[in-house]
Amino acid sequence: MSSRELVVLGTSSAVPTRHRNHNGYLLRWDGQGFLFDPGEGTQRQMVHAGLSAHDVHWVCVTHFHGDHCLGIPGIVQRIARDRVTHPVRAVFPASGEKYWRRLRHAAAFADTRIISEHPISGDLAGVGPIIARRLSHPVESYGYRVQEPAGRRMVPEKLAAHGIRGPEVGELQRTGSVRGVTLEECSVPKPGQSMAFVMDTRLCDTVFELASGVDLLVIESTFLSSEQALAKEYGHLTAFEAGLVAADAGVRRLVLTHFSERYGFGDEPAFVAEVRRHYDGEVVLARDLMTIPVPRRQVHNPAK
């Protein structure tokens, strides 16, 4: 099983349907669980997906429209009830803090102290491994990006050419040089893996910036282009625009979600067709309870 994968808990937009729950996405990333936009019913969807409250380390809310946050009370109370002991960090727009507090304390329960709050503001913010950028929506909304730092990968042929072997390899990685040979002489750049999460927004520069070069882009495509005017009025993207972003940003795997209730599974080919007008990479039309791996980084390994 991949240590970096997205578990899809819900894929509808404002109104859940018989086949699509409200939003909800849990990103597994090296033992950390990032729960994005838990909409109504997320706690039950987690049960169906084989997840528990102990899998949640972060709760990241893009904005406080109901389909992106009404699951918070159940998640918080489940974390408390199941006596989760590790820290859980909640990230959300500072302008919606009053809504967070109402949801956080929506009912009587035995509370927990392990949840810390990290309200964000401004055009650019960061909390731990998360980068947040302000989007364009009728209420303040943020997109998120999880980014692994860039590193370097050792090249066996280069190590052998310099006579570096055994414990010296580890020393080279730790210190950057061994016997006058530098790390750069024996390795190649290794870009860090990345994932971006873009929900309710009009097309804007920050969408492209969040998506730039990511391995996995999870992006709303609420409407088809026939509803372009409606999408712009309500601050949403079309499938056509999602494809434009993916192509321009060089995305490796594109995941469409947050579908209007007016569309059924039979409309999926139309979403793909709109994306294909710009983007020829891998496209996944998300369905509830899917698991989608983050593509592995492939680094060219020249032997010189």
UniProtKB/TrEMBL annotation:
EC numbers: 3.1.26.11
Record keywords: Endonuclease, Hydrolase, Metal-binding, Nuclease, tRNA processing, Zinc
Cofactor, free-text remark: Binds 2 Zn(2+) ions.
Metallo-beta-lactamase domain: residues covered: 34-259
Residues annotated as catalytic: 67
SUPFAM superfamilies (alphabetical): Metallo-hydrolase/oxidoreductase
Cofactor(s) the protein requires to work: Zn(2+)
Binding-site residues for Zn(2+) 2, renumbered to this chain: 67-68, 200, 258
Pfam family, one: Lactamase_B_2
UniProt catalytic activity: Endonucleolytic cleavage of RNA, removing extra 3' nucleotides from tRNA precursor, generating 3' termini of tRNAs. A 3'-hydroxy group is left at the tRNA terminus and a 5'-phosphoryl group is left at the trailer molecule
Gene3D superfamilies membership: Ribonuclease Z/Hydroxyacylglutathione hydrolase-like (3.60.15.10)
GO molecular function, one term: zinc ion binding
EC top class named in words: hydrolase
Amino acids binding Zn(2+) 1: 63, 65, 137, 200
Similarity annotation: Belongs to the RNase Z family.
Role this protein plays: Zinc phosphodiesterase, which displays some tRNA 3'-processing endonuclease activity. Probably involved in tRNA maturation, by removing a 3'-trailer from precursor tRNA.
Subunit structure comment from the entry: Homodimer.
Name listed for the protein in its UniProt record: Ribonuclease Z
Lineage start: Bacteria, Bacillati, Actinomycetota, Actinomycetes, Streptosporangiales
Gene name linked to the record: rnz
